[in-house]
Each structure stands twice: as C-alpha cells, then as structure tokens.
Amino acid sequence: MADTAPAFVVPQLRAVLREAFEGPQAKWTYFIDNRPDAAVFGTVDALSAEQASKPSGAGASSIASHVHHLCFSVAAATAWIRGDRSDLDWKESWRVRAVDAAEWTALKKRLRGEYDELLRAIDEKATSDEEAFGGAVGMVAHAAYHLGAIRQKLAAAAAPAK
Fold first, then answer.
1. CB under 8 Å to 152, separation ≥6 — which residues?
2. What's residue 160's pLDDT?
C-alpha cells in the first residue's frame, strides 16, 4: 500500500485527527464547531476533576471514563498501526470512573502523549498496509464518537433539572 498511497493520505489523516483533538486549524472545519475549545483537548482542559468525575446518570460513565478510554484506545490504535496485534483487555479501558485533581491532570497529560505517539505512528506506518491504514481511519471515527459523547455529557449536565 505504501507504494500506491497518494501523497495527501497521511496529511489528511493528521488534519482530521488534529481537528478532533486540537480544534479547528482554519476558518472552516471538517466536523466540529469552529471554536478553539470545540475539540477534545479544549473541552476537557476546561473541566475540573469534579466535573470530569460526575456520571451523567445512575451507572453511567463519566467524562474521566471517556478520557481514560481514549488514552487506552489511542495507544491501542498506535500499536495496531505499528503492527502489534496483541489482544487487549478493553474492560480495562473503562475502569476509571472518578479522579482527583492530580489524577485528572495526569490523565489529560497522558492523553496528549498518546495522541503525539499516534501522530508519529501515522507518519511512519499508516500506509504500510491495509490494516495499519484501517487502524488510523478507525481512530478518526473513534475520536469523533468520544468527543461527541463528552460534549453530550456536558450538555446534559448544564441542562435545567426536570
């Protein structure tokens, strides 16, 4: 696949992921609102540990849960793109429910580090074979889903009680 991939494939994968995690890069966007805080990092950076730990209902996940899951899934996608097909314990990806201030800071830092590694893996290997490319494309969809889930949890928390 590396010999036949058009030159724009990797830059476009990076551009869509940057929008999902970092926010808009131009006056237009692929899928998020055109605000600096509309992406994953801008959304979660504005939250306290208490806000991130609050579940959206009985037995529901918290924003901290989604961020931990994103850390796990970004690392999994990075490994996949690099050729690691190990079985993973996906239940582990949802084990975090609540965080204190230090844990929340560390979790956000970890997400940024995993994201940086993902971008490196995409640069190095995303077009090396179909499975690697699929892992990169899948991460775009996965990140967009969790950004939407996090934003829906924030909207529900801000809605007046019925």
1. 56
2. 81
Considering only CA atoms, which of 7, 2, 143 is closest in space to residue 78? 143
**In the predicted model, is pLDDT for residue 114 greater than 70?**
yes
Judged against a pLDDT cut of 70, whether residue 149 lies above it is answered with yes
- Residues with Cβ within 8 Å of residue 92, at least 6 apart in sequence: 72
**pLDDT (average), residues 134-154:** 96
pTM above 0.85, yes or no: yes
